[in-house]
Specification:
alpha/beta; Rossmann fold; 55% helix; elongated
Length: 444
């Protein structure tokens, strides 16, 4: 076997010389660095095949005896390999290693140059560094945001304390409004506009006038009975729609006669609901009709077109019931005015949610029910003012028709401001200061 050395300043140049002379199939036996550069020792694949083949002279004849074969095996076991055979063994071992590693070698991308691999690694490291930096920046920004909110709350507390020291009436008025059921936001808005240098009685007169001016109350000469038309009483279950319908019907019959009134019910879900209204209708001498579809309602309206007032008692539905939208569409398409009943005993948050869901296509006012059962009415008045609803009536009991009155702002405000919570539901002075500061900072 012919071994050849190739020397060049760099490994790349030495390999180029090797491939030029011995071809692409050449086998590299060793490489080392010398004073002249890189030295590569290699042999051609043809020479390797010659070395690995066993010489013909050593082939055992077919007629060997057992003793001759035993003697030859003993000689082969003690014979030292020649230098050429050692090189051939090393080359064969390297070839086996290359063959065994071939699948793993093929998995390495063959089209990615060395500088591209370095660039890809650099990109990944840069991306990891960027992600880490972004995460740290997010954490720092969150901490700054929390510190800013804390400072804002503390500054609001200081501002409120200064304002209360200058005008203690503001704190007392804020406490009075919130204890009466008004929202902290409404109380803050009112207190911030409180004039200075007012006596305690003047403060009460001032705040009551502010509330009265913001209540939109329908005048007595323009109420439902006086103006006439077609009205549907809507709202959640249990707010008193049927009883209020009977009260309005009685007012109309007393003033204009039974022929001036038309009564319709759409409540076919509640057991006895139609019977309840029919009992009232029988007492008043008025026939009660049932409408379950848009066609039924349109037909009844045509039949009652000469009636002065048509009242529709609707089925009670929770504000989040999917049927609310369907009911609203039927009434709107039939050109029926909708009046919302609000239960004064409900939580202000619940009332606000009720108005938002029933107000989707517009309301023609509201009626406050169960005022006789409510401890505080500031919450329901707050909701009415916030949504700018026109108040028609207030209902204060179950008697028909006695317990129904036109909405009077003076009565409502007086009733709201004199309400007081029990001791268990009252906040301490320090709690009030903290709550006032929180409302001032967050606006809630």
């Amino acid at each position: 076997m012919k071994l050849k050395k190739f020397t060049a300043p760099t490994t790349r140049e030495a390999l180029q010389k090797l491939r030029a002379e011995l071809g692409e199939d050449a086998i590299i036996l060793s490489t080392k660095q010398t004073a002249a550069g890189t030295e590569v020792l290699a042999a051609s694949s043809q020479d390797l095949d010659t070395v690995t083949e066993k010489p013909a002279a050593q082939s055992a004849p077919l007629s060997w005896t057992k003793a001759e074969r035993t003697q030859l095996a003993a000689q082969d076991a003690t014979r030292q390999p020649t230098p050429a055979e050692k090189i051939a063994q090393q080359v064969a071992a390297q070839r086996d290693v290359l063959i065994n590693r071939a699948p793993a070698v093929h998995q390495i991308p063959q089209t990615l140059p060395e500088h591209d691999m370095i660039s890809e690694v650099a990109k990944r490291r840069s991306q990891a560094a960027s992600d880490s930096m972004a995460s740290e920046q997010t954490a720092v920004l969150e901490e700054i945001k929390q510190m800013r909110q804390l400072l804002k709350d503390q500054m609001a507390m200081i501002t409120w304390r200064d304002a209360l020291e200058k005008n203690p009436q503001r704190g007392e008025l804020w406490n009075q409004l919130t204890q009466s059921g008004f929202s902290p936001l409404f109380a803050r808005t009112v207190v911030e506009k409180l004039p200075a240098d007012l006596s305690d009685s003047q403060v009460q007169d001032w705040v009551m006038n502010v509330i009265k001016k913001n209540l939109n109350v329908v005048p007595a000469d323009k109420d439902i009975v006086e103006t006439g038309g077609t009205f549907a009483l809507v709202g959640p279950t249990g707010v008193g729609k049927t009883t209020t319908t009977a009260k309005l019907a009685a007012r109309c019959v007393v003033k204009y006669g039974a022929d001036s009134l038309g009564l319709i019910t759409t409540d076919s879900y509640r057991i006895g609901a139609q019977d309840q209204l029919r009992i009232y209708g029988k007492i008043l001498g008025v026939q009660v009709y049932t409408a379950q579809t848009h066609a039924d309602l349109a037909q009844l309206r045509n039949t009652m077109q000469r009636k002065r007032l048509i009242l529709i008692d609707t089925v009670g539905m929770g504000q989040r019931d999917s049927r609310v939208a369907e009911q609203t569409k039927i009434l709107t398409d039939s050109h029926v005015k909708r009046v919302l009943l609000l239960n004064a005993t409900s939580q202000p948050e619940t009332l606000d949610d009720v108005v938002r869901h029933y107000k989707s296509t517009g309301l023609n006012g509201a009626i406050l029910s169960k005022l006789d059962e409510a401890i505080k009415i500031g919450g329901v008045l707050d909701v009415v003012m916030r949504h700018k609803l026109a108040l028609h009536y207030i209902a204060t009991g179950q008697r028909v028709p006695e317990d129904l009155f036109p909405a009077d702002p003076r009565v409502l405000v007086h009733r709201a401001m004199r309400a007081r919570s029990s001791q268990a539901f009252q906040a301490s002075s320090e709690e009030l200061k903290w709550k006032m500061a929180q409302v001032s900072a967050t606006g809630i």
